[in-house]
Structures are given as C-alpha cells and as structure tokens.
Write a structure and sequence with these properties.
Elements (H helix, E strand, L loop, with lengths): L9 H28 L4 H106 L6 H14 L1 H33 L7 E3 L1 H16 L3 E6 L6 E3 L1 H17 L5 E10 L2 E8 L6 H4 L19 H11 L3 E7 L3 E9 L5
Parallel strand pairs: 2-4
Antiparallel strand pairs: 1-3, 4-5, 5-7, 6-7
Length: about 350
Amino acid sequence: MAETAAPGDEAALRAEIVRLNKIVQSLMNRAEREAGTKQSNFGLFQDAVMLEKQVQRRTAELEAALRENERINRDLTDEREEQRVLIKKLEEAHNQLLQSEKLASIGQLAAGVAHEVNNPIGFVNSNLGTLNKYITKLLYLLDLYEAVENEVPSASRERITAFKVEIDLPFLRDDMVDLIGESIEGTARVRRIVQDLRDFSRPGDSEWQAVDIHAGLESTLNVVWNEIKYKADVARDYADLPMVECLPSQLNQVFLNLLVNAAQAIPGRGVITLRTRREGEHVAISVQDTGCGMPPEIRDRIFDPFFTTKPVGQGTGLGLSVTYGIVEKHGGRIEVASELGQGTTFTVRLPVRRAT
C-alpha cells in the first residue's frame, strides 16, 4: 500500500520518480544490447521487464501519494483561508462589541449630562420670562413719565431730552424686547434639544408604547441636526397617522441611521425628504435623499453585517444591519430604491398594532 507523503515531501517524491525512471531506462537499454549480441542471455531481458513492471507499479504508487499530497496541501490552504476570514470577522465583532460598550457608556453619560443641563436651562428660561414681565412694566412706567414730561421744568426737560438722544431710546425700547424674546426662544430650543437627547439616550427600551411617529422623527432630527444642517435642507411631507405601538428608542435609532446615511450620501448640498403615509393597518415612513445613489451590486448588500463603502475607520458596516433587525423585530419591513446619480429612498413599513 502506498505511503502518504507529508506536505513538505512533494519535491522528494518527484525526484524519486525521475530517478526510478532513469534506472528502468538504463536497464532496458542494457537488456536490449545484451539480447542483440547474446541471444542466450534472454533471461536477463525478462528480469529487466519484470523490474520495469515493479518500477511502474512503484511509480504509480508514488504518483498517487503525490496527488494525495497535493490534495492535502489544497485542503490546508483552504483551511488557512477560512481561518483568516474567521479571525477577521472575530476581530471585527470584538471591535464592535467594544464600540457598543463605549456607546452605551456615552449614552448613559449623555443622559446624565442632559439632566444636569436641563436644570440650569430651566431656571434661566424662567428668569428670562420674569425679566420680560419686569421690562414690560418698566416700559409702561416710562410711557407714563413721557406723558407728563411737558410738566417738568425746562432745564430738567432739556437734560432728559439730551439723554434720550444719547442712548437712542426708541432703538433701546425695540431692541430690548427683541433681545429678551430671542433669548427665551433660544433657551426653549436648548431645552427641547436636551430633552430629545435625554429621551434618545435613555436605555429603558424594553417596554412597548403607543407613540407619535412624527414626534419621534422630529426628536431624532434635533439630535442629528448638526450632521444634517451643513449638507441638506429637510422637507416634510407628513400625513395623518395613528399612534403606533413600538419600542420608541429603538425606532428612533432606525430614524437616526437613515438620516445620517442620507446626509452622508449627498456629495455637495441637497434635500432630504421625510414622507409618511398610512397604508391600512400599517404606516410607511420614507427617507429620501438627492445623493449619489447606489449601483445594484452595492444596493443588494447594504443590509449585510460589516458591509460598508466608507473608508476604513469611518464605518462599522452595522448601521443598516441593526436597522433591518429592529424593523424586523417590530414585524415590519424595510425597502430601498436607488438609482446611480439620482438618489436613494429607504421606506420603513410598520404595523400600527404590535405584531404578536
């Protein structure tokens, strides 16, 4: 029975086959010469023929061993490649776990910071409201003084008139009211952003709730506005929707991923359109961008875990995969329509009532 050669003996096997073939050829040549000169030495020729058969049999065994060796080498190469791919995936999964742990910590930190910021913003907003009332009363008092200004002695009246001109009283009256109004509006916006950030980063997402989809979209827009405002204008095409049973924070994560992807797909400046529709017992939420679009070979893989077209270090390839999983968990589906150079539309369809 042929011995199986080790993976490193391939060269030695080939050399052995060549050496045996040379020996056989030499013996055959010698036997032919002897047979031509000495007919009585025919037995030597027969021995050479038998030897040739033995060498051929041994050669066939060695060639079989060589083929087996080549197969083993191919299997080892395939195994090494599979191990390399597996190690790469394990490294990516490990890095993603570390990133997820980091994001979870950042989320908890953000919720705490949002709570701490909300308190001073609250009393600043309250103080501005009170200050606005005080200013209104003082301006009314000033009007009363101006009504009796003619009764003031002329010397004092001239001094008052000169000071009014110096401080540009009409401008101060108007600008003071505007400044307080803008400040109140600014603190109210900060409170909304902080509240949205706190709601978005809240880890308690294990309970199903009936929520307003439009409120979730607007809340997520506030959180990611810094990512969008430099890239696109946001257009809204909202329809009347019922309250939808969902896990609010997870659904907000879907909106966040789609909005950020839409902004990143726009090379210059474009438009992101948010569109909602009711379809029987389902609702449809679309995020449409005027970006670069995708070819079919990329569009077919965007929901695969770890698949990304972004440069190394700028994307994990899990955003849309996570989005797909969340939508599927809600009993819905997500669809994508894209044309190269014409933009992309992601449409999420969800049941109004929780799928059981």
